[in-house]
Amino acid sequence: MITELKMKKYDIDELVNIKMLINNNNDSFGCEFHEDESSASIVDNHYKCTCCGVDLTASQYIAQTKGISRIEALAYLYRVNKQSIPDWLLEQVRPNIKLLKINSDLSKICNEKLFDDTESSNNALKYLLEDRRLSLETIGKFSLGFFPKDKNFLNDLIIKYGKNELLELGIISEGEFGLYSMFANRVIFPISNNMGQICGFGSRRLDGVKKNKYINSQQSRLFNKSELLYKERGVSKGVGIITEGYMDVISCSQNEPKNSYYAALGVALSAKHVRDVLKKHEKVVICTDADNAGIEATKKFIKESLRNIDLNKVGFVLLPEKLDPDEFINEYGREKFQDLINNSINAREFISIVSNSYDEISTLETYDKFRI
Ligand SMILES: [Zn+2]
């Protein structure tokens, strides 16, 4: 009986032809989850791969590739197939819809707060306009905002959206002295999932203290930071350039709009991140800060991605010491930056350049072993 019920719940998986979702009519094709030519196929309306072993129904496939929950993926399939969403599913989807609406509202509210005539709002706006040299258009495009440190502001949010909902989203937390927000007195960067919904926030403190300078929303049912990349919403053009942080993405989009920019959200860059960018761009270039941490992170990424990505499509740029991409553009101009991107080196060259110890040479050998 239970099995029967379970089967019924997921009947949309049976109704949807998974071939339509993957948009590929061949019998076998390259797997979406690693780099290969033909190990994936559709068997009994499941996405299966003989190489990595994935076996996914339509909704599992949508959840994985769009970075949303299974519940949302099921609701999505009902919607796009113009089927009414069953009650049991609606009950589970509703809380997500409510939370997404709160995020969307909060993004607008914080954007408006940026233009309030208070000392702290003025300070936040000045940071974006003068220190970061962003235009009002860029601020609007990325829906940047300001979260005031103000008890009344917090109370109004709690009254309007509910304490539990705000706690679940990590917008407020409960401490020794009551409720507070970790976003207080911070610039806010709304973060979208692959469906274009605001699923979380990044933030930067404005008081000059270095500790926790940037923090993101905590992990929640909407926000899985290891799956997501920060990017400009709905735009894919030129080369997909992966930078280190939000500010690089925003200011590079403003100063060299020919390309699209991405950044991981405080987690190490993964093969999945790069595969997601490769779905939208022929070529991906990873910009690495020429400090130890940056080089180590890129080496680790190369090691881990050897068998998962076609590294021929991935270029590497080592930025001059202590310059991030935005500072580089400001100092040397757009053309020089585009030259850097056009002349990006491949993974092998990158490792050769940065190798200077036995351990690193062995990285190079590992690289060769897998690329032969
Ligand atoms: Zn596979």
Q: Helicity, in percent?
A: 40-55%
Largest sheet: 5 strands, mixed
Structure ligands: zinc ion
Question: What's the β-strand tally?
Answer: 15
- In CATH's first tier, which class of the largest domain applies? Alpha Beta
- The fraction of residues assigned to DSSP E strands is 15-25%
Q: What strand order characterises the main sheet?
A: 11-13-12-14-15
Number of domains: 3
- What is the overall pLDDT average? 87
Taking the alpha carbons of the first and last residues, their distance comes to 53 Å
Could you explain how this protein is built, in words?
This protein folds into three domains: 2-85, DNA Primase, Chain A (Alpha-Beta Complex); 93-216, DNA primase DNAg catalytic core, N-terminal domain (Alpha-Beta Complex); 229-371, Dna Topoisomerase Vi A Subunit, Chain: A, domain 2 (3-Layer(aba) Sandwich), CATH 3.40.1360.10. The model is unreliable at 1-7 (pLDDT under 50). The chain has 372 residues and is an alpha+beta fold. Helix 4 packs across helix 5 (70-80) and helix 11 (246-255) runs parallel beside helix 14. The chain is 47% helix and 16% strand. The longest helix is centred in the first third of the chain and has 27 residues, at 87-113. 37% of the residues are buried. It has a five-stranded mixed sheet with strand order 11-13-12-14-15, with helices on both faces. A four-stranded antiparallel sheet has the order 1-2-3-4. It has 17 helices and 15 strands. The protein starts with a helix and ends with a helix. Bound molecules: zinc ion. Residues 31, 33-34, 39-40, 49, 51-52, 54 line the site of zinc ion. Zinc ion binds at residues 31, 33-34, 39-40, 49, 51-52, 54.
